[in-house]
Amino acid sequence: MSYRKILVPIFGSVNDRPALQAAFALGKQFGAHVQALFVRLDPIRAIPYGFVGTDLSGYSAQYAIELAIKASDEAQKVAVESFNEAIANVGIELKDKPGARTDASTALKVVQGDFVEEIERESRLCDLIVFGPTNDDAGHDNIREGFEAALLSGSRPALFVPSVPAESPGQRVAIAYDGSAAAAHAVTAALPFLKRAKSVHSFEIIAAGEKSQALGDLRDYLALRGIETVEHAVDPGSKSTGEALSLAVQAQHCDLLVLGGYGHSRIREFVLGGVTRHIVQHGTPFAVLMAH
Questions:
Q1: Quick one: 42 and 85 in the same domain?
Q2: What does the pLDDT look like over 151-160, one tens digit per residue?
Q3: 74: how many CB neighbours lie within 10 A of its CB?
């Protein structure tokens, strides 16, 4: 198992640069084709709600459409510049249909529509989706919505990277594991990383004195593939699970965390909090691979 096609949505913001940098680094690492995707907003979607089903020739509707087209033009220009700059920096080859090659290649696809729907559609035939940071003010709403759409569709694992990604993410890998289906799915989705990692650390957030077989089960499963793990049972104390996990991963100097995304329902995570929500909102200095 390997990653052969990597999807990287770009939005025309400063967050495109770290996303492209990480995607191209992974493309070289795995010999994968990197498909960059820019989605232009369908200008009809910008028409004020009150005009739907009525006369669309009014000034307000026309003005909204013109603004949407202008915004898409400007965002596309920034996205293309970031894409071309990233290609120049890493020397990756442009190729629309690379076929069964073993060296990295890339292409930029521009479509028009709803970006959430388009990202979800494109994610169905890829192996990994890479997003930039989701916790700042530079286009983070679009990135977060696209990230959640791709993750919750369950099609493919989603990786989001910090503003300064590691040169080669996945050298020291952390796994957050509690025995849940989401966590198990994330582990199997991350196997290409785990096989190449220099060290793998497994973490379970569990109160002092409690016992769990989760990390032992994970250790035995990965041992079948020749992957050794260093186990860490972390007592969160007064900290939230997300905060305790993030600090524990940083203490081991890991550059990638493998995590089951939205292990509870999305609504329950929103109401009660949760590791996924903490990570997405607060960000991390390391990359995070999630699967639902």
A1: yes
A2: 666 568 989 8
A3: 11
